[in-house]
Amino acid sequence: MQRLFNFISIFICFVVVLKSNRLLSQDLPTFSFVESQSVGLTSTPYEKYGVAVADFDRNGYPDLCCTRWQGPGFSRIYMNQGGTFSDITAQTPMEQIESAEEGQRTYTPLWVDFDNDGDKDLCFSTISTFHLLRNDDNIFTEISQEVGFVSYKPGGFIMEWDVHPGSWADYDLDGDLDFAATQLSNPSIYLLRNDDGHFTDVAAEAGLGDTPMTQSWSLTFEDVDLDGDADLFSKNTFYFNENGFFTDASQTVGISDEIVTNYREMFDYDNDGDLDYVKVHSDVTEEPTIQLWENRDGAFVDVSEDAGLGFYYDPTRAISIGDFDNDGDQDVLVQSNILGNYDMLLLNEEVEPGVRVFADVSNYVGLTITGDRKGHAFIDYNMDGFLDSYTSSAELSHILYHNDGNGNNWIGLILEGTTSNRDAIGCLVTLHMGDQIQIRTKKCGNHVANQENPYIHFGLGQATEIDSLVIRWPLGIKQVFTNLTINEYHNINESDVTSVHPANRSATPASVTLDQNYPNPFNPATNIRFSLNEAGSVKVSIYNLNGQEVAALVDQCLKSGVHTLTWDASNMPSGIYVYRLHANGVVLSKKLMLLK
To answer: Is the N end or the C end of the chain the one with fewer CB atoms within 10 Å?
Structure first.
């Protein structure tokens, strides 16, 4: 009790400091409301639910999709050209899709490069159907049926199928992105494995055939335990991924169901190098609506009251995470629209060593517009290094606030995978600065109404340099950068080198196998995966069609398990090649195609 009293006292002192403007004048930037028409955001007078942000045209500026929830009209797609948007919805089948399913709602848009061709495609659902729109030079085509990106109607009398896009990640570490989604009337979630651009539902064989996750609209891939593979979590349910098989870890992590919600996030709120958990209530309640769970050696502990979050009672419609004041820790925006109140921008501050509290600074920084609001994202729409605020709105169509900034420094990363998935989903980025660390993860799909800022963003406070920045790519390659210039975004590609990735943590395979390379055709790099039933001498080589060896990828003793090689063929001509595995008395070969 004394500890709680001390924390509450600190929190009250923190609020007094805010109100005296001593902190505000030094650290907090303000937000300026941007007239939608002035930046090309056209009128969309319908109720919305969700916003997705990505640079789908690869020009270095984040683009938008805002989704029609109900009412006349159709969802809109906006291309960002240097801070000014253009409505390119006519280059998509959105109007035709939503008109054909009149009266149905559209859920959770997600931008994703599912085919690893370098541009972002778009997925979303209506109540009963998944949709996948392939992007070819900013012209979008519906391809759902032809690639198996489909839902199905469960048995019984079902009026609404209630399918909800969840998240994308490379759960099986084969270099492409797979898809997870829920269906409220279906005891099994969807786990659509991506096999060379065609999707197969493998939920049952991956341990997800009958799961309480189906009772949630919200499903997210996140490497919760930071062990290098994509886990899954929903409201209060956590499934840990071990070599592509998911096991219920909900009791292990210890997060309860005190608040039932679709709006929750994982982030390192206390900068100690692991992921903590925040969730907010979406209904009117007499209990506090925000809970913060601190990660302590893999078990989560409720620290809501200690962090000053036991005083908020507003029901919510979205939650966003970002360092809006660039001071080196991440803040929380909670969208509060049901009772007509302001959104809550919860400033994260370390008020003394090891003691952090949150306080609502919305009124101090200018977030004062109310009305119907469902879906929020932090988005640096003009790429000046300060996170702006975008909300989809019924009455105002769009609520865009420009972050006017302060004197704090920052650094940003635009990541692209080469051997890993092009979107770099699953990356873990660690920034070192003196005795301080910050971590960020890259994911696709935050919760039921959000896909957030697509770039890795760190606030640095008054620091003028960083010591190092470490990127762990999804397939295990690590890159370390030093002497990076601050106050700019850096384009970073995964190492284009031939390498052997660590063996998977799988059970011993029953035999020696050789998988088809991915991608195929490829340019310039491709992945070759094989499995060994026992340790032994292994050789993998590449041959041209004349039988000449052109590359030796590995010739050494390897442990049993699953291994992945990467062949960088930058110096080779286009053509068909043969890759051959010699292991444990077995010789296996397959063809691959280099297409430049």
So the answer is: N
